[in-house]
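question for whoever is on the cluster today: can someone run the full assembly for these? two chains, 426 residues total. i dont have access anymore since they changed the login thing
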Amino acid sequence: MAAFKLSIVTPEKVFYEAEVESLTVPGSEGYLGILAHHAPLITAIKPGKIEFRDTEDQIHQLAVSGGFLEVSGNLATILADAAEDVDEIDIERARAAYEREKNRLISAGKEETDIDLPTVRAAIERAANRIRIYEETH
Amino acid sequence: MATLREVKKRIKTVESTQRITKAMEMVAAAQLRRAQQRVEQARPYAAKLDEMLSHLASGSTGEIIHPYFEERPVEKKTLVISASDRGLCGSFNANVIRTAFKWLRENKGTDVEIVTIGKKANDIFKRREWPIVGHWADWGGMLDYDKAREVVAFLTDRFISGETDQIDLIFTRFISTVKYRIVVEKYLPIARPEVEDDSDVHREYIFEPNPEMIYSALMPGYATTKMVTALVESFASEHGSRMIAMGNATNNAGDMMKSLTLDYNKARQGQITKELLEIVSGAEALKG
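^ ran it for u. tokens below:
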């Protein structure tokens, strides 16, 4: 199968850089699959699961918290806000974050606070995404 | 010549100073290592982001519609100065501040306000004619992501609400331990990305869902990344500069101790000679 280059970069590090055969990302309009020689594309990425198959037929799965994907000239670039391999997900931390943010949201409904609702919602979504992917794969 | 006791006291003082500078050098070296790592990690992301923005601009037709690009007639400018919290880092802060004053001279005609990052920048500018509208200190020589985001939110709000028309940023780009370069960069409005006219690069991009949405999702991250990169580069430069300054201080203290020890030995020898002379002359006198 034809391969293309994938690089996943987060603000902390270059997460992955190698040839892959197929790639699935959670685009802002829904999951989309990329194969070699895909048409040039730029899209935002929602929190979700990135899946790709490398040239050794190994399937990699990672949780992503959002970002962007650009495909051009047989090169796919993912700029991720944060990404971690499913085996590296800190499930305790994700659960704690989920509870914490949920409580904040509940308390915000009761009384006037100065929390930023979109930020809290995004945090809940990120935590929920990690938990979901962890439970799916373990 | 100083007395024996005085010289000894001085040697002790220099010695304890040297111990401190040596410890500071070592701490700075450790922090530098960490900061350098951060710089190297942050660079690829920033570069890719630049690239993507440029592709976005060249691939989409029509005007870029995002408030961060809005160029207005400049009536008011904001200068963000990134210096260190603590001193003893050689000429680091002096260089940053000199550049800031140069910028201020060049912008004499415009209404200017200042945002300082780091205690030292604030100390210098708090009693000057330009108002400080924002101040972030106590970074501890490390990047605090939340704090950086606060700075970005403050600056972008100020720009979008029209309180300022242009934001410039003075920071130091880290080159190597012994080298950094002071950079004055326009932070907002963001320069319109270069449209690559190359037919090879110019492709028909598919945008999901549309360029406007991607811009509005991309630009806040872009502004944050730019600030974060500037800050990590500044911190790395600061630690590099401190390490070199403290290394020099340690060496100087060593030289000083050498010459003081020489003085001490000379004084000691002088005293022994004197005492011998006294004994000998006393014995001579007794002989009669």
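summary bc i know u wont read the tokens: Strands of chain B lie at 76-82, 111-117, 132-136, 166-176, 179-188, 206-208. Chain B has two domains: 4-24+245-281, 27-243.
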